[in-house]
Amino acid sequence: MGEPAVVVHYRLHADFALGHPWLRRVLGPPSGLDLDADGLRVRLGPWLVTTPLSNLAGAEVSGPFSPLRGLGVRLSLADRGLTFGTTTGRGVCLRFHEPVPGIDPWGLIRHPGLTVTVSEPDLVAEAVNRIVAAA
Questions:
Q1: Closest C-alpha to 56, from 13, 113, 122, 16
Q2: Strand, helix or coil for residue 33
Q3: Residue 52 belongs to what domain range?
Q4: What does DSSP say about strands 110-116 and 82-85: parallel, antiparallel, or unpaired?
Q5: Are 134 and 128 in contact (CB under 8 A)?
Q6: What is the pLDDT along the chain (135 residues), one digit of tens a residue?
Q7: Buried b (16+ CB within 10 A) or exposed e, 76-99
Q8: Number of domain units in the chain
Q9: What's the start-to-end Cα distance of the chain, in Å?
Q10: How far is residue 10 from each of residues 92, 93, 97, 131, measured CA to CA in Å?
């Protein structure tokens, strides 16, 4: 018997919270977080993180962040966590059972977590935690 299937009956899209209006032109329209039956996809400009729903381990709202730690694409040297930051406000930290590729195009560096500064961090955290609880 394999893992139980996780069923998602909705689709969630969250745009990145933007500290400056010019960021929308830089990031382009495909940037944001999508959560649906196909899994989790987070794109910030050219960077993309994808993972199946079964790999989601939980989510917590975090922040506010300092400009040095919260803006841009950043790799944590402490735990290899990845940040897609567009504002110093609040975000959501997504945790994974198995680390995922994201910062490098070859997938050599794997990340146990991804912090994203989306416009609805509470909603995203709640949706992820409901999926994890149902699994």
A1: 113
A2: strand
A3: 12-134
A4: parallel
A5: no
A6: 455 555 556 799 999 998 666 666 666 666 899 999 999 999 998 999 999 999 999 999 999 998 877 788 999 988 999 999 988 999 999 999 999 999 998 999 999 999 999 999 999 999 999 999 998
A7: eeeeebbbbbbbbebbbbbbbeeb
A8: 1
A9: 14
A10: 19, 21, 22, 11
Q: Does 124 fall in a domain?
A: yes
86 is a domain residue: yes
pTM reported for the whole predicted model = 0.88
d(CA 85, CA 83): 6
CA separation for the pair 51, 98 (Å, rounded): 9
CATH number for the domain harbouring residue 47: 2.30.29
Any idea which residue has 């500290």 for tokens? Answer: 19
